[in-house]
Amino acid sequence: MRRTVPALLALSLGLMSCMQAPTPQPSTAAQTADTAGSAPADTQTAAPSESAQALRPPSLVPGTYGQQVSVQNAGLRVGNQGLFPFGFYHVSWMSDAATRQRDMQEMSAAGFNTMTASVINDADNARYGEFLDAAARARMYVLSEGVFESSVPKLASKPAVLGWMVADDCNLQYTPAQVRDRGARMRSLDPQHPTYAALFTSYAESHSDFFDTTHMMGNMSYPIGPGDSIGATYDMQRLSVGLSKKNGTVPVANLQAFSWGTVPGHDASDPAARMPTPAEVYNMTYQAIGAGVRGILYYTYLDSYSNVRRSPAVWEMTKSIVPEIAQLSPMLLSAEPKYLETNNGNVHATAWAYQGHTYLLLTNVSATQAQPLYVPLADQAPTGLRPLFAGRGGEGVRLSGTTLGGTIAPLGAHFFRIN
Fold first, then answer.
1. Which tens digit of pLDDT belongs to each residue from 179-204?
2. What gap in Å lies between CA 199 and CA 173, rounded to an integer?
3. Whether the Cβ atoms of residue 298 and residue 345 lie closer than 8 Å to each other
4. Alpha-carbon gap, residue 192 to 244, rounded angstroms
5. pLDDT computed for residue 271 by the predictor
6. Using a CB cutoff of 8 Å and minimum separation of 24, what contacts does 348-356 make?
C-alpha cells in the first residue's frame, strides 16, 4: 500500500555514507521519576486472580523519556532503558494539523508510545516543531516523514523525536541503494537519531537487501482481504527478525488495522475485504511478538480512507493490548526468543528465559479450528503453567510432565509462565 508524501514534501536524499548505529546526545528535556521499562516482566506475572492487586499499571513510556536514543542489539534504547515502540501510523498529510494533534493526544491517552506523523504543507513545516513540543508534553515519540531538510537540524533536539522515516513501501518504489542514500542523507542532517523505512512485502519474499539500509525496518502484514492466510504474519515477521538480527537493525511489525475494501482500486463489495476482527488483531499482534519483533506499528490510525476510531471494537482491542506489551517489553527487549517445535503448522510456540523464569507464548493461526497441542518442554524444565493475562483464554492448555498438551482455540494467543 502506498503511503507516499506528495512530491513537494519529498526529501532530496542523495549522499552515500556507511550506516552506523546512532549515538544521540541527551536532550535538555526534564527527567521524570517514572520507572517504566526497567521493572522485571515477571514482577507482574501473577495468576489472574492476583493481577488486579498491582499497585500501578506498567507503562510503555520509559522513565528516561527525552534522553538519547540509540540502537543496540537490534533494539531501541532511550538512555539506559529499552523502548518497545507500540503505536500507529498516522498519514498526517491526508488530514490537517489540528486532527494530527488531536489524534496524537488520543493515542497517548490510550497508553501508546509511538506514532508516525508527516508534514502537511509548507506552512505546516514551519510550525511542525510546535507539534513535536505537544507530543513531548504527552510523552509520545514520533517517527516523522516529509520534514524539509532545512528544518531537520533545528528539530533534532526535540525530545519527542524518535527518528526519521525516509522511505515507505520501499521495495516498490526504491532500490536498496536509494534507500541507503536517503538514510545516509538524513544522518548527515541529524546524526543523533535512527532512520526508519518500511517494506511492502509478502511472507514469501524477504527483500533481504533492504535490511542494512536504515536503523529500523518495518515489515507489513495485511492479510485480511487480499487472500493471504492470517498465518502469513508470523512467517513474514520471522524473516524480518532474522534479517534484522543479521544486520543489527530493529525489526518493526506493521500490522493491519484497516479494511482493504476502503482502499482505492479494491472491490468494496468483496466480503473478504473487511476490517480485521478484534480477535484477528490480537492474534496478529502476538504472532509478531512470537516471531521476535522489537516494535509494532498498526496501519493505520488515520489516512484518507481509513480511521481506526470508526471501528470501535478494533480500537478497544488495541488499547487493551497496551498494558500487556508494557509488562512484556523489558523481557522482549533483552531476552532472545527460542522457537519451539509444535508438530503442527497452525501452532507456534516461543519461549523466553528471563530473570530466572521461563515464559511461553502459544498462537493458533487457524481461524476456524481448535488445534491439538504437543510441545516438548524438557529443556525448559517446566514446574507449572501460570497464565499471565486474565481473560485471554487458554483453559484448554495442559501441562503433563514435561510436555504441553491439550488444545488451543481458533485464533488463540496465550502467554504463560512455566517455571
1. 999 999 999 999 999 999 999 975 55
2. 10
3. no
4. 20
5. 76
6. 348/234, 348/287, 348/290, 349/290, 349/375, 349/404, 350/289, 350/290, 350/291, 350/292, 351/377, 351/380, 351/418, 353/380, 354/40, 354/41, 354/42, 354/330, 355/40, 355/41, 355/42, 355/331, 356/42
Look up cell 490480537; give the residue.
282
DSSP lists the bridge partners of residue 254 as 220, 297
Please say if the pLDDT value at position 38 is more than 70: no
Examine domains 59-334 and 338-417 and report if their fold is the same: no
Over 80: is that where the pLDDT of 19 sits?
A: no
| Contact criterion met (CB below 8 Å) for 28 and 157 | yes
Average pLDDT along the chain: 87
Mean pLDDT of the region 102-119: 98
Distance, CA of 285 to CA of 256 (rounded, Å)? 9
Q: What is the predicted pLDDT for the residue at 205?
A: 67
Domain 338-417 has CATH 3.40.50.300: no
- The whole-number pLDDT of residue 46 equals 34
Angle at 365 (CA atoms; ends 363, 370), nearest 5 degrees: 85
Considering only CA atoms, give the Rg of the chain.
21
Which grid cell sits at 289? 511478538
Do residues 387 and 409 lie in contact, with contact meaning Cβ atoms separated by under 8 Å?
no
CA dihedral 38, 292, 201, 211 (to 10 degrees): 70
Q: Backbone dihedral region of 343: left (phi > 0), alpha (psi from -120 to 50 degrees) or beta?
A: left
Of the listed ranges 171-175, 271-275, 363-367, the one predicted with least confidence? 271-275
In the predicted model, what is the mean pLDDT of residues 140-157?
98
Q: Are 382 and 418 in contact (CB under 8 A)?
A: yes
What's 59-334's CATH class?
Answer: alpha beta
Amino acid at 48: P
Which residues lie across from 299 on neighbouring strands?
Answer: 256
Look up the pTM and report it. Answer: 0.88
Provide mean pLDDT across the span 212-237: 93
Region 116-145: mean pLDDT is 98
Q: Could you state, in order of their start, the residue ranges of all structural domains in the chain?
A: 59-334, 338-417
DSSP-assigned letters across all residues of 143-197? EEES--GGGHHHHTT-TTEEEEEEESSHHHH--HHHHHHHHHHHHHH-TTS-EEE
